[in-house]
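Hi everyone,

Forwarding the result from last night's run.
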Amino acid sequence: MVGSHENIFKGRGVGTQYTISNIFNNLREEASQEISLLFYNNVIPFNVTKIEEFDKKLELVVQHGLGFKPSSYMD
């Protein structure tokens, strides 16, 4: 995965301090960018994000937690 969460600690210089808030903001930004790229690279209209079904799907993924594996093309 491009820009995985382990990378937030790389390049940490003297005097640089990461807070939990900063880490979560970085992860949120990374997730938003990846979702945007999914839409852009697959020519999915961005207005899909405005429908209730989109929010419900993301909420279910979040509730599942780490390690969620979506169905594959072959499932």
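The CA atoms of residues 3 and 30 lie 7 Å apart.

Cheers,
N.
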